[in-house]
Amino acid sequence: MASVAVPCIAQGQDGSRDLEPPFVFQAAGLNPASIQSTVDQYRAALGAVNNGNNPGPLDNGRREINWDGGGSTATSPGPTPFTVFLQTRGANITTPGTGFVQAPVDGLVTTFGNATYARIFQAFSPVRLFSAVGSNKTEVTFFVPGSQGTVPATTTGFAAVFTDVDRPNGAGPLGGIGNLLASTRIEYFDRYGALLFTSVVPASPGDASLSFFGIIFKDPRIARVRITSGDKAPGPDDAPRRDIVMMDDFIYGEPRAID
Q: Phi/psi zone of residue 172: left (φ > 0), alpha (ψ -120 to 50 degrees), beta?
């Protein structure tokens, strides 16, 4: 399934409604091809140029993190905060867990001690996936690339790819039975910590599916995102009442310094 550029009403913590809501991009399916067109449309809408590791802020374009390190197949644990991309791409990544791991599927098996992970996950951009360790929560805070994390920033949009989101489908403002049952969601916050928008990530039946969710505002207002990937920290078996989810690519607009 796919739904591209659908304007939704964003609801803040005080219940107020934003008259300039973001556009929502979402897709889910059994393989990379099933979400590729939506990912590409999101990239184009966000900023056609991938700014890579160039110092910012730049006038336009986007940043991406795909965890593959130039084709690395190594299993690489990392601490929290995870600052590998703070200087180069303006993303400071944290978790209430013990840290993070970048790993191919067999590395996830070793890291989490669960052989079933070899068949229930797949990468979107080969070969490594990304996960918090000891938690299902990941937060990304934005800074101007090249500022050594000293210049806080906001961005127009943020999206992520996930694998094996089992329940349920849906996107939209706070509330609704789908949000209550969802295992995976993204929350978007402004510079003051106010919640701008939240939505569940679309699911796809079966093992090793792929899901994509992202939004774009007309102006850079997202200072932080919180990702809930699955309803339990990785380690246990995936089950009907326990959805274990891994992350892949992060895609976001060029971080702009907060005025």
A: left
DSSP state of 82: B
pLDDT in tens, 151-201: 999 999 999 999 999 987 433 344 444 455 789 999 999 999 999 999 999
Q: How many domains does the chain have?
A: 1
Domain that holds residue 204: 2-11+20-257
Cis link prior to 101 (omega < 30° from 0)?
no
In eight-state DSSP terms, residue 11 is B
Residue 94: its H or E element:
strand 91-94
| Residue 256 and residue 151 in contact, taking contact as beta carbons nearer than 8 Å | no
d(CA 162, CA 227): 11
148 Cβ contact list (under 8 Å, min separation 6)? 86, 87
- Distance from C-alpha of 103 to C-alpha of 87, rounded to nearest angstrom: 22
Across 22-35, b (16+ Cβ under 10 Å) vs e yields bbbbbbbbeebebb
Strand (E) or helix (H) holding 119: helix 117-120
Residue showing tokens 């990392």: 78
What letter does residue 167 receive in the DSSP assignment?
Answer: S
Read off the pTM: 0.90
Q: Token pair of 248, please?
A: 């892949």
SS (H, E, C) 209-243: CEEEEEEECCCCCECEEEEECECCCCCCCCECCEC
Q: Which of 197, 180, 179 is nearest to 188 (CA)?
A: 197
Dump strand ranges (E) for 107-150: 129-133, 137-142
Contact by Cβ (8 Å): 42, 159: yes
